[in-house]
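Inputs:
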Amino acid sequence: MNSTTAISTLLPILPEIMLVVGAMALLMFGAYAGERSSGATNVLAVLLLAAAAVVVIAVPKGRHELFGGSFVLDDFARFLKVLALIGSAAAIVMARDYLKSVNQQKFEFPVLILLSTAGMGMLISAGDLIALYLGLELMSLALYVIAAFNRDSVRASEAGLKYFVLGALSSGMLLYGSSLVYGFTGTVNFAGIAKAAGEGGIGLIFGIVFLFAGFCFKVSAVPFHMWTPDVYEGAPTPVTAFFASAPKVAGMAMFVRVAVDAFPTVAVQWQQIIVFVALASMVLGAFAAIGQTNIKRLLAYSSIGHMGFALVGLAAGTAEGVQGVLVYMAIYMSMTLGTFACVLSMRRTEGYVENISDLAGLSRTNPTMAFFLAMLMFSLAGIPPLAGFFGKFYVFIAAIKAGMYTLAVIGVLASVVGAYYYLLIVKIMYFDEPAPAFRPMPTEQKAVLALSGLFNLLFFVYPAPLLAAATLAAKSLF
Amino acid sequence: MFVQALFFYLFAAICVASAFMVISARNPVHSVLYLILAFVNAAGLFVLMGAEFLAMMLIVVYVGAVAVLFLFVVMMLDVDFAELRQGFLQYLPVGVLVGCIFLAELLMVVGAWTFGPGVPRAITAPIPPLASVSNTEALGLVLYTRYVYYFQAAGVVLLVAMIGAIVLTLRHKTGVKRQNIADQVARNRDSAIEVRKVRSGQGL
């Protein structure tokens, strides 16, 4: 094999190689240039993420398998990788102003996000259980560190430690499940597992249950959601914004790929699990958020609920359902990033505030921000014609076509309950006595908010590109 | 055959004896040293079985890293092991009982061991014959070719662990006097010496 063919065979994994090598280069650059280099590393990291996204799209179409099937690049992986890269880039962009104002500028922040994103890419492209675990650990380990990034804050350290301990536990469960699946099928490769699983025995089902418990933890689905509100509240806000966007996309990708690729023959068994998890997440996300006063905690419960809605699509177990999940994740990420751009702008002269009551009367102190935030709240609640409605629409249609009427009906009811607390925020912003005004929004937050707001507002005009990409991606799994 | 059996019993006896000494030695430093002895003898047993790679790993990882770490911890922390060990005899019956149950379960598991029908079909990397390839070589043949992706990914995970440890713990203290050779060399007579007139009876 000469060198040119060697390089071209590595093309599908080039984005991950770029991210890892780039992260190492930025690490060296930051270590020698000192603390002042954090602005430059931020810019370079965002450029690197953009370049990786370009490469992901530029790789020739079709399914590529590398390293004996450990690394798979298909349309499904392409779609989700682009999403994860956008989420990570937005997180770095939004973090700049925050870290500067709390005096936590460090060049390690973008480096850790780059490495975490490389882990997400490996996770999304994983073609067997070992690659899946390695990608997951690479992603999570960097997340544990940046959760505790503000190490002088007790709450951030608590959040980091809690996330680490529970994350290690869930990794343990995932590994236990993997070893059972390996033991009962004799292979770690997803295609091989699908071939050997057959009707599935009690041992294999045990393995699936443990595997799915680990996955549920990573996407913070009930009953493995307990860490989410505490970590979201304790971690620095831009880190929370990152947690709520890209890693969720990667976690959902791994969930869908393992369920559809590795266990198609035992779908009846795992569908029961997903139906329960989806139901419980939607209901808990709707009811537990009602009493919250902290906006980050509220968004944590909201994200639990949204993971439930996305899992409805997976519960259907059809190509249409997977397409619903993909559309949902794309829309969810845009809504989350926009909302966090607003939360990151809740800053007065004395510092950042996080209470919902601080938003009171925002329509008079900052009408533009109030309008966009209100629209994102309507979108999160799923009110047409905003994008959030279409996300829910596609997953519920898939569930109904698969004959899961109860699931769809309970889901719609849960989203009605959820609408209460989203609309409560709108009410506080528009009809309550104004609280002291916030400082002007930083440019980056304005840009992110404008992009996500326009996407949500105008999605119904021209939804075709996203839908077509999601259809293509879903087809590549079936 | 005779020599092999002789060495087996030698290693096994020392291993069991030193394992016993690990828990019964009064001095915790002696315990760790006995632990190292146990590891080395276990490595000897591995060599007798033809698993020389495992033997070397045991020496490098357990003796070289883990046991030395233990030694550091034991020496650094002021743990009163004599106090910890109080009531050892009191708990002995329960401990022996639990140990016996474990042993029985282990025997049952090993006794009922069968391979699933799918397993032999699905083995992806067949084990090469021992006569032609030593097991270190066999591992090397697949580790850097077939499994290079896993190997590199694990390396990146370790890199993240290292960055994380540094980010979360390294502190640049201010007010610590460090040696700065450039500053020292750049000193000249003017910056280092000051001539003052001292009046008698007043001092500086």
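The radius of gyration of chain A is 21 Å. Flag for discussion at group meeting.
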